[in-house]
């Protein structure tokens, strides 16, 4: 098992980072909470989880060990795969996710792309006890989506739309959300944060 990878960010295309490790490029899918902290040329450590299937092997990377633990915990829930788990962690911070589960806040969960009412109810039931131990271990953190990011394209609007679509939002939904907030921001990360906030209302 590959527990973590240390390397230099070679390319970024949401939600995937191409990490150069001694001349070998690793494609790693990340939640936006991690992706938005990365910049080309930056040396980083990503905590990784490897999913092996008959037709593919996929690495998933996270900025810290706790987020990786939450990802693995989500995968244990019936009906939750890597894509949905990434979507949950991209939309909700670890702290907000734990708070949501603790307070049976289904309305917040169903706003995550791909999470319907039945899945949200299952998440509540299966995660409640597992998250109790984590509830008091998470300190306050800044919203990672507010961090500066550098994508491969030059258009902040296009970058924001692509990032939202990578979460599972339909192109029309992403375009509408970005259009509603783009006039107030110039950086991609700020547009993404504002668009996500508006869609969670």
UniProtKB/TrEMBL annotation:
Record's keyword terms, sorted: ATP-binding, Cytoplasm, DNA damage, DNA recombination, DNA repair, DNA-binding, Helicase, Hydrolase, Nucleotide-binding
Positions of region (Domain III): 158-201
UniProt-listed CDD domains: UBA_RuvA_C
Domain Helix-hairpin-helix DNA-binding motif class: 72-91, 107-126
SUPFAM superfamilies to which the protein is assigned, alphabetical: DNA helicase RuvA subunit, C-terminal domain, Nucleic acid-binding proteins, RuvA domain 2-like
Domain remark text: Has three domains with a flexible linker between the domains II and III and assumes an 'L' shape. Domain III is highly mobile and contacts RuvB.
Summary of the function given for this chain in its UniProt record: The RuvA-RuvB-RuvC complex processes Holliday junction (HJ) DNA during genetic recombination and DNA repair, while the RuvA-RuvB complex plays an important role in the rescue of blocked DNA replication forks via replication fork reversal (RFR). RuvA specifically binds to HJ cruciform DNA, conferring on it an open structure. The RuvB hexamer acts as an ATP-dependent pump, pulling dsDNA into and through the RuvAB complex. HJ branch migration allows RuvC to scan DNA until it finds its consensus sequence, where it cleaves and resolves the cruciform DNA.
Family from the record: Belongs to the RuvA family.
Name of this chain's protein: Holliday junction branch migration complex subunit RuvA
Taxonomic lineage from the root: Bacteria, Pseudomonadati, Pseudomonadota, Gammaproteobacteria, Moraxellales
Gene: ruvA
